[in-house]
Every structure is written in structure tokens, then in C-alpha cells.
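Q: How would the C-alpha cells look for this protein?
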Amino acid sequence: MEFLDATLALLCAFAFLAGFIDSIVGGGGLIQLPAMLLLLPGVPVPTVLGTGKVSSAAGTAVALRRYAGQVPVRWRAVGAAAVTAGVFSFLGARVVSLLPTELLRPLVLGLLVLIAIYTFWRKDFGAIHAPRLPERKEPLYGVAVGLVIGFYDGFFGPGTGSFLLFAFVGLFGYNFLSASASSKLVNLATNLSSLAYFAYTGQIIWPVALPMAACNMLGSALGARLALRQGVGFVRVLFLVVVCAIILKLGWETFKAQ
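A: Here is the predicted structure in C-alpha cell form.
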């Protein structure tokens, strides 16, 4: 019993940290999922994923609520991206069983390296909120972003938050704070889409999922508050740190698989 209590306490600590990081720049799955796989040996991977989705969805909802009243969000464009991403995330999850995800890892690794170099090189990237697309066209671009990144999230996953952040800054012209808030809505849609599937198929350990969700929500609230207080520069630096961490993780997995 003490072992189970200690395991749950550790899972909650990792969920808190994941929520904190994810609320600012995404990438919380890099922290939460490996911890769950390590601390829940013998539990089927789909059940681990389903349990983690409860925590992730709850934390993302809290972060979105914190940002929504504080930073500008173009709801038509972001809503279109969110709905499309939710649908195509489900489709991606269905396709993943048909194709080897290992084929995607080198491509994603290369894209993340380019994103990191570009963001580091362009010091003013994401510093100013200056939407560059005509307002009537933004929903169409939102659908395109939701289709590609939503499918990717369901199919493979790592770096989804970073890709969303980069898309909203680079394509739409948002600053890092507005892009972070926008990406939360899209992430929430993809999380709820996959969560519905896991809940329907009974692949969630609720006594573990609910305490983790509470801790993830607390971490998300604190992370979003810190991002709003520290501003765009802080989010940009943390974005680069998380992207580099994903690059190292995917690089190690690619090298190890060879």
C-alpha cells in the first residue's frame, strides 16, 4: 500500500511539472508520459495513454481559461483549427496502427532542428502581435493547420505543442503569448478527441487519472500565470528549451533504433 501511495505521489509530481511546462509552450507529454511508463510497469500502453489524457486535457483547459481573458485570441481562426484538429487527431490515431511511426521520426527531427535555428536566429520572432492574414481568410488557414497538426498529433505526437506555437507565430503573425493561448484550444480539442476514445474503450485508470489531473491543473494555472507575468521573451526562451529537449529525445530514439 505504501508503495502504491509513493507511486501515485510521484505521478502527481510529474503531472504538476508537465502541466506547468505545457501551459506555457507545450511539451508536457515529454515529462508525463515517460514517467507513467516507468512508474506503471505492466500496465498496457493504451491504458497509460488514456490515463494520461485525462490529466493533460484538464491541465490544458485550465491554461486556456487563464489565457483567454488576458491575451488576444482570434476565436474564428483558432476555433476552425481546433475543430479540424480534433477530427483529424482521431483519424491519425486510427491510421497509426497501419503505418510504422518510425518512418516519421527523422522527418520530425529535421523540422524541429530548423524551427529551433529559425527561432534562435530571428530575435524578433514572436515578439510583436501583428496578425498578417486577412480576417476572412484566417479560418481557412486554421482548418489547414488543424488538419495537418491534428493528424500528426493522433498519429505520432511528440512536438505537437511546439509545431502549433510555431504555426501561429510564423504563419498567422501572433506573438508568443497569443500563440500559446491559441495552441491551448487546439490541444484541448485533440486531447478530448482521443480521451473520448480511451474512455469509451475503458482504457483509463480513474483512481490514478483524477489525482494527476488535479496536479496538472495546478501546474497549468501557475505556469500560465508566470507566462503572463514574465511576457513574450520568457515564453520564447522556454520554447527554445523545450524544442531542444524534444530534438535530443527524438535524436536519441532515432540513433538507438539504428
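Residues 232-257 form the longest helix (26 residues).

Residues 1-256 form one domain.

Upvote if useful.
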